[in-house]
## 1
Amino acid sequence: MESEDAEDDEDKEDEAPRNKRAANRRKAGKKAKDTEDESEGDSDSKTDSEEEESMSEGELARLTEEVEEKKKLIANIRTKPWRMRRRLTVLKESQEFVDKFEGALGGKGKGRAWFAYKMMMKKKWIKFQKDFENFRTSCIPWDRKIKEVESHFGSSVASYFIFLRWMYGLNLVLFSLMFGLVVIPEVLMGLPYGSIPRKTVPRAEQPTAMDYSVLMDFNVRIGIFGYSLMVVIRTMAKNQDVGGGDDADNEFTFSWKMFTSWDYLIGNPETADNKYASVTTSFKESIVDEQENQKDENIHLRRFLRVLANFMITCILGGSGYLIFFAVSRSQEFANRDDIGWYEKNEVEIIMSLLGLVCPPLFETIAELEEYHPRIALKWQLGRIFALFLGNLYTFLFALFDEVNNKLEEEVHIKNNSVWFLKEYLANFSMYNNDSEATAPPINPADAIRGPCWETSVGLEFVKLTVSDIQVTYLTILIGDFLRAFIVRFLNYCWCWDLEAGFPSYGEFDISGNVLGLVFNQGMIWMGAFYAPGLVGINVLRLLSSMYYQCWAVMCCNVPHERVFKASKSNNFYMGLLLLILFLSLLPVVYTIMSLPPSFDCGPFSGKAKMFDVVMETIDLDLPAFIGTLFGYVANPGLIIPGVLLMVLAIYYLNSVGEAYKNATLELKKKMQMARDEEKNRRNNKKSTNQQQQDLEDLLPKRSLAPPPPPENNTEKKEEKGGRGTRVKPGAAGGVNMQKDVSLASANPNARGPVTREPAPRGPGALPGNPQERGEKGRGRGAPRQ
Amino acid sequence: MGGSASQLPKEQLAEYQELTFLSKQEILLAHKRFNELTKDERNPPTRVPMDKILALPELKSNPFRKRICHVFSTSEVKDGSLTFEDFLDLLSAFSDSATLEIKSHYAFRIFDFDDDGTLDGGDLEKLVNCLTGDTDDTRLTQEEMRQLITNILEESDIDKDGTVNLSEFQHVISRSPDFVSSFKIVL
């Protein structure tokens, strides 16, 4: 960095060629720089304090603005579609400029040191952020693996693995939350203190004081849900930006097929061939579709078949629900017997997993009756699988709660028994000691009669469910994919027909089935995590092993899809599903917190009427009084109902704003088309096709109607034809005022010349994509300013 | 400028990080792979010829590989050769964190086969032929091709001048949910 003393001469020399070469100095900016240089030159002989005074206010402001602009440019330089050479030059210049003049702007004498310090800290912070980002990206596991899968199978299969990795991260955080905040303090505080006797050991007297660890426990469990909710919603919001709006799928089918169907991640020639074939097929199909439109043949038969199919599927759903209910009630009988084998113990879970395995293919075969378009059929299929899983899970829960109620009744008996037992014990003790003053030593908790702990049994059931689910999944992969590939590969030599091309052949990776499985598994974890905290840990292990196992299975036994079918917006769809499952699994848990009494003899919440009382008691006893009254007011229905109403109104409002934008888009499109038609007509000297326009023009005198330069307001996602308009003689575009209201999403760089000549001959001012460029040659904003 | 050096100097690395969307590891990996392309030569040139670039596994199966090389090349003779900086430009535009504008800008230039700044019927036809592969039985018939191009122009040509310019292209692309995730190349 040059010292300010020696700089002015050098600067002036450097300035001239640099200004000629530099791409993005505004005229105003340049002027500021010139005046600045002059004043710098003047100030050379003056002292520091006089230097500041020699800069006038206007120059100072302009200089500040220029510095800010340069800083913004530096931050955004990578988003400019220029060549690297040019970016480097511009970056260097901008950095020099900023460095040089930032000090000069540093404020009056005393503040200068502080300003310099601030700048340095800022730079350090930015560097730290960058390093942290680098570190974070390098920490992401399994990048190589996923890249391999991507290059073989394309991005849709890889998206499953990316989803899996994301879930793994989520579960890891939940697990560490749970572990760090609940389990470790427990272990640390140790059994001798036994934070609450009931936690480690059953039964003792009533708790006298509120223990914070219980509250913490409760909060952590609730916090798990809260955190999951936040993360899922945030990811959805991020995906929403990328995905763009969600109006009609059919808006740009052909263009999208053309421009976006190739998957650039494919690195494998075989996959590429498949892709070619599928692209061709999809082109041909859509051409045919377009021509065919409505084929109305025999709509009644089709309707009947569809009703029949739906009826059969509902029967299957009902049947599976009943089966589960039956199995759960059978398991209660089993629980009373003692000679049960492994199968009987896990019967319910096995049945549930098998149902989840067998029914979806059944749905698919039945769905062939319906003859929907493949994308719609896929949606129906996913919806049905969803209903199946949900139905199964909720039936399971209801059956479980039946059991819980039974246990609660049992508990009442045991409670009475225990009280009676205690009385007896004390009576015996005093009888033997003849000393009514001495207090009996407390009963060793292990001796006391324990009641059934319904929370434990519920937790246990969930654990068993998860474990059997894992087993079934792995077995299916092993048998369905690996064994199948094995047989096809080796038996092909001695079989009558070609196994590889014909019937079994190699399997394709079932993306939606796997993703749904993952999502539902997560739902079960969320439900069970409240009762069995270790479940999250089990899930972490499961996801980890799943990653390796499925990566191996996919590379070894699957072939790329023949028909590559992007259920578009699929990423957000799966996130949406996850969100729904989160809510649905929250419901039973909240219900139990609010209404079922915790079991008397175990768990951290015992002794209270409801688990939620933990929070209520804290509020009442431990926190200052006004918070209690505050909560009382907030929980008042009189406040809640208006709150809900407000939210409904907000949703309605946002909806109508969205619709208004859509209408505005259509209007603008129409205007553009009209403008183009007008120009065409003008060129051909025909009468205007727009009657209103013609009337207006008849009234106005014929003068050159140069349109005023449009303002810079940015209406979102509208592009402008300004680039085209400049090629027309001034006045031709004048009659239409649309250019006033509209500004570009990105300037059309090609109004003047072919694109590849961009680096060298493009002089200053002809920049693509620079939104700040006020068209010096009248480009980009459509205002011919010759 | 670092293309043939065996080590990338630190300030250059920092500069490249500023100027591209790539992270430090990605730049280093790119440097390594780029040097591997010319490792057999005694005097490796700064500019790598196109056929060596096309031998990269990531580009080998891509139907647009030649266009990609031409678009990102800064050579005066238009032979599609790339320096290391061109290579970085390429990777940056195709990276995960590149913005939609950058990607659509470069996609437009890649699809513009005749380099005239717009996608006209000829460009679109060549585009379709690239996508459907080289064998005869996968090509579309003339009739289908005509129909396809008409449909595409109907959808995306807003000002009805028979060509798709950059703004129209970007408008179409910005609505597509698949574009960003499929327009990616990772080393």
Note: Chain B has a mean pLDDT of 84.
## 2
Amino acid sequence: SRQQVADLIGADPREIIFTSGATESNNMAIKGVARFYKSRKKHIITTQTEHKCVLDSCRSLEAEGFQITYLPVQKNGLIDLKELEAAFQPDTSLVSVMAVNNEIGVKQPIRDIGEICRARQVFFHTDAAQAVGKIPLDVNDLKIDLMSISGHKIYGPKGVGAIYVRRRPRVRLEPLQSGGGQERGLRSGTVPTPLAVGLGAACEVAQEEMESLGAIAHLVSAACTSASLEPSYVLRAIGADEDLAHSSIRFGIGRFTTEEEIDYTVQKCIQHVKRLREMSPLWEMVQDGIDLKSIKWSQH
Amino acid sequence: MAASSRAQVLRLYRALLRESQRFSGYNYRTYAIRRIRDAFRENKSIKDSEKIEELVNKAKENLEIIHRQVTIGQMYATQKLVIENPGNT
């Protein structure tokens, strides 16, 4: 299974550590690297559109005295490479940028980021949960030092993932979980064999599917975020208006989605939007040419 | 072992499709059928007998996987999806 995971990303099987999922992998990468090098390095760079577990890990590190730079994204959802370069400090230990975003589907310029980090000898971690098996990711080609992999995002079982930790040059990290020393001492705890086998098989299938797809672009399917009334912070980061962020719905498309399902969903969407608009006084105003942003709402 | 004949390959193809039709899950059923057709179409011009043998073995393995999953799926069948009901779209 380790070999199967390694083959998918061009790594050595000794560089693959099994975890409970990408959330744990992200926690390990960020907290682990930060804490190991904390005597000399106390700065981390990441982006505003990372997954909650990355952002939360960074926030908890701030409470430990680390300094984090959260790079903004442009309207297209991509970071500005010049801003990334400008953000480096002599005590930067890690850059963490996700390969593909789970909410808006954008692909960050991983190759360029890898080059920039390698040139400055700063470790580069990427949360590849949404990207693995959909776009080719070779850790040596792209100069990636740590990578988070999610089992269920590539149609494997839930409850398992992996983290790639480079051996040459060696990336050191402080383990989150202490114990019997499994997984090179980086992640103690009995490896869940059935889940690991499932992850390996999923990686192998993903590799075959990717090869047969050729150049076809794949829309990524995603589903995370807990139930919350807050609008998506990712949509806010790309500059969407409040009302747009509040009223957005995300449709996931994946390996098993059929054309019929897409057609059906589109039809239903149109039908319901029309129905809601009929009922909406705001829609009437829009049709009369009124700019909704100019409305002064009175207090009740 | 004799090389796989055209008749054998076609028998396998039909067996795979027939088994896939038995999936109670809409998404697995449609994916399996589509994927089988695409894979056989993609490889229809292969002439190298070793490669053909390799593909035939993989197909046999997949037939067994599908059979297992069809059986488990039928044990734990759920309701039909809204899109499977006639009269929608």
Note: The longest strand of chain A covers residues 43-47.
## 3
Amino acid sequence: TRTGSRQHTQGGGVETKEEQEEKMEKSEQAAAAFPPSFSVSEIKNKQRRHLMFMKFKQEKRKQKLQLKKKKKKEREALGDKAPPKEVPKTIENQRVYDETTVNPEDEEVAFDEGTDEFCSYFNGLTNPKVLITTSDRPRGRTVRFCEQLATVIPNAYVYYRRGLALKRVVPQCIARNFTYVMVVNEDRKVPNGLVLCHLPDGPTAHFKVSSVRLRKEMKRRGKEPTEHSPEVILNNFSTRLGHSIGRLFAALFPQDPQFVGRQVATFHNQRDFIFFRFHRYIFKNEKKVGIQELGPRFTLKLRSLQKGTFDSKFGEYEWVLKVSLSAVTVFFKMQEELCCLI
Amino acid sequence: MGDTSRLCSVWLGSETGILKGVSLSRKQAFNFCNTSHLSRDQEVRALCWGDPAESELLVGSVDGTVKTFSTEKGSFTETRRCGDPADGCFTGLAVLRGSALVSCVECGTLRVWKEDSSEPVTELSAGKNVCRMRQSPVHPHKVATGGKENGLKIWDLESPEKPVFTAKNLRDDWLDLRRPHWVRDMAFIPGTDKVVTCTGYHQVHVFDPSSPQRRPVLEVEYGEYPLTALSLTASGDTVVVGNTHGQIALLDLRKGLVRGCLKGLVGGVRGLQCHPSQPVVASCGLDRFLRIHSLEDRKLQHKVYLKSRLNCLLFSSRDLEEPAGEGGAQEVKEEEEGDEVWDSMERVEEKPKRKTTEEEEELQKKKSKKKKKN
């Protein structure tokens, strides 16, 4: 069988050059029938082209298997002296330590956090009061999502948007002592964005929402959540940016959780995605816990963090997600390490 | 304390009130704080050199005090009360003839303070909502102010009644509506009389007071977000602007085109400055990093994490020494670099004083070399 030009090189030992020379000779012999720079893509007939390509791939796969067998034999032959196995590159392997990771003993960061916009909440002076609304004319799914969010977050009120401008809503909320405004944005009957604005003069975070699962879509769920304040778990918010976002989420819930209710809300950050889950737990004995998932579940990705209340045109941004078009993807993490994928 | 402050080539003011000095050759940042406990009142809003020899820094804080920091000693030497916090934060600080201090606050009051008295010598009102005040490097008694709905005004401090030049707003747009204008930052172009401003409506304007036209001579638009900081390069024909999204661009003033963008900054730009002699620009902002880019190839040279949000920055005019890693020939190289630094620095009139400080510096350097050796 004649295959396409052997453009691929084989890894491995010193034999490469000799092998290539052999191949060249063979292909030159076969070149009588085919022009030297033949490639599968030049065949105009789709079926034949497909067949040739399949053959080419099979050849490649065969050669790869042969190479693997050879390597395995060599490794067995060498026995103890064999070189150590190479570790494959993964995203987690390629991480670089992020210098903005917060050191718990750092005074400056502690002072910064102690006097930032959330200090009145963390000092116990204010209680959270959340206003949940949507973009204009929401559809059923978004409405139900907002209602379920209101059961999860204590002291939350859902209001219909009525086409009002957010910049006008914000001062009215401040006057009525709200501490948060949460706006769920809807696109094509599905919630896809979230703007979380901390009220007196606090930061505004804009998230992309995905994978929303409402209560009736969840399997093996428990009964409706009760009025007790849940405990809050924040995982992996370790860099400076992560700290700010973590505090933003923590300030949504009242400071003293009611352990009687046995409910817990989890914000788990992994690779810049924040997963929200709401569970009810019960300790069967000291070591075993049973959990039941209640409530909606969704994932968030931070798009921008703006200093000050909602002002997308003239506000100053503390962090903006920049989508890079090049092949180098960099994750600026809210988690420990900064990761570089090449 | 004194050794560390003498090494620093970039000075930054942060929101927590800490003055930070960064030494790029050693890749280290040092914190200098006035009080033992920090407070948000001390948030640094304006920074300027106290004297041409760059041995003193003037730090303006939110609570209306101006502190003098000596780079020789590494500590704050003086505090002066220059206005009420009710007036607003400092939008500009400048030094006049060595001993007088010019300060401008947000409510528009521009004051000239003398060394001893607590009352201003001259006071004038530059309108409301002033965003920035800058002093002309060539004529120290000329200052420019600008703000929200408050156009560019150039004042001569010797005759403070009326501004020397008031800029006119742009022509009404195609719907005959008045164009809003919001001057965020400005700079005097060396060599000519012209002033460059950047606005909150993503425009860059060049004004020429010598021409009869009070409207901008050149208008360039960049991006969709307010431009917050501006800096001129040493050559005077390129300007670096930064906006609230962290985009920094190089604009050419001859034709009004965008030369290129500097990448890396993720938060709003608060401070930008080009080095007086090297083709290097430093930027700082809300993302808590100091970044130094080279102007020729627009690549990032240094990036330093400083834990608080940064408000303003200042370059010292000496050379940013090359990054460490020379190895054995350090001693010889240091001496050579030292000579280069002193040769490239501008001459000051008071020669005897200079000589003694030079000698002191060399002694200190030798001491630090000895320490390193040990």
Note: The CA atoms of residues 17 and 112 of chain A lie 63 Å apart.
